[in-house]
Amino acid sequence: MKVRDFRAGDEEGIADLFETRSSRRNLLDAWQWRYVDAPGAFASPAVVVAEQDRVLGFGSAVRSDLVVAGETFGAAQIGTGALGRSSGDIDVDSEMIDKLVQRARDEGLAYVYVAAAERAQPLFESLDFEFVCELNARNLYIGLEGLSSRLSKRALSPFRKLAKEARRIRTKLTTVPIDDAILESVGRSLSEPDAPVELGVVKNAQQLAWRYRDDPRFDYELLVYRKHAGQGIDAFAFVRRYKSETGRTIIHVDEQWTRQSGRRAQAKLFSELAMLGLTEEVDVVRCFSPGGTSREQALLGVGCIRKKVERVLLVCRLDERAPKLEAPFVAKEIQISAGDLELYDP
C-alpha cells in the first residue's frame, strides 16, 4: 500500500469505499462543492491509500479557521466519517494523517483539528493531537409510535392541535429565504458574539452561503426567531429534515445562534423548535453539543436525551505562539456546531 496525493479520477475509487448507492452518489455530487468550491480550499485537498490502481482509504483536509480565547488563528479540519476512510492498517493511516498535518504546516496554519470516532482517538493522540471535548448527539423525542402509547400519534394529537393554534396566534419562529441579505445579517451575528468565544469556528456570510445554501446534498431551511414582530433577530437555526431508517421524521439542527449567550436563551430557541415539530408531525428534533457547554445544559433543560458520544474533538497545535488547549478543556461557550464538523455520513 502506498500513500500519495489525490489525483483527478480518484473520486470514483473513493466513492467505491462507501457501502450504499446513495452514499456513493452523494459523495460524487459533493466532491466539487466540498473540496474545490470551499472558501480557502487547498490546491490538493486529499491523500489516498492505494494499491496499484485501487483506492483502499483516503483522508481530507479543508481550511477552517478557529477562534481560540477570542483570537483568530489559521486552521484546517481533517475529515472523518463521510470525508475520510481508514485503510485498515494503522501505520499507513498514521502516514496519511501525517501528510495532511504537514500540508497544514506548509500553509503556515496554527492548528489542525478533527472530529474523530472514539475508537480513532488513540491513533490521533499518538500523532500529538490533544483531546478537547466530547461531541454528543441529543434528541428531543416528540413522538415514539410503537414504543410508547403515551407518545403515540393518537395520544399526541390534542397537543399537536394546541401547538398549531398557539403558533397561529403568535408566530415567532419563521422560515426565511437563504439570500445574500440574510446571510450578511446572520454572518455578522456569529462574528460578533454576546460573550467571548473560548473556542469556535470562524464564520461569515461567504462561509455560511457555501455551507448551507450551496450544499448539493441537502435542502436547508433558515428558521428565524423574533420576540417581537418587525424587530431584530433574537435567534436562528439552520436545519434540515429527513426520514430515518425506521421511518421517523427528524429535524436536524446543524447551526444555531442566540443573541443572548447562556443556556436560558438557547433553551428558548429549542423550545420553539419543539413547538414547530409538534405542529408539523415531526418525531425527533436532533442537535449536537460539545460536552459541558451551556448549549448542552439548555438541551438537557428542554428534555433532550443523550443518544451517544458521536465524536471526540481533538486538536493539534502547529504554532507554539498559539494558545495550547490543555485537557480537560472546560468552556461554557464553544461556538462549534454539527454543520462545522460534518458529523454525519452522506
Written overview of the protein:
The chain has 346 residues and is α+β, with helices and mostly antiparallel strands. The protein has two domains: 2-135, Gcn5-related N-acetyltransferase (GNAT) (Aminopeptidase); 136-309, Aminopeptidase (3-Layer(aba) Sandwich). Helix content is 32%, strand content 29%. It is built from ten helices and 16 strands. The chain has a twelve-stranded mixed sheet. A four-stranded mixed sheet has the order 5-4-10-16, with no helix packed on it. α8 links the parallel β13 and β14. The two termini are 26 Å apart.
Can you tag this structure with a few keywords?
16 strands; four-stranded mixed β-sheet; Aminopeptidase; 2 domains; 10 helices; 346 residues; twelve-stranded mixed β-sheet; globular; alpha+beta
Tell me the layout of helices and strands.
Blueprint: E1 2-5, H1 10-15, H2 21-36, E2 46-51, E3 54-63, E4 66-68, E5 71-73, E6 75-78, H3 90-106, E7 111-116, H4 121-125, E8 130-141, H5 153-169, E9 173-176, H6 180-191, E10 199-201, H7 205-213, E11 221-225, E12 235-243, E13 249-258, H8 263-279, E14 284-290, H9 294-301, E15 305-317, E16 334-335, H10 338-341
Helix pairs in contact: 5-8, 6-7, 8-9
Write a brief caption for the model.
The two termini are 26 Å apart. This protein has ten helices and 16 strands. The strands form two sheets. A twelve-stranded mixed β-sheet has the order 1-2-3-6-7-15-8-14-13-12-11-9.
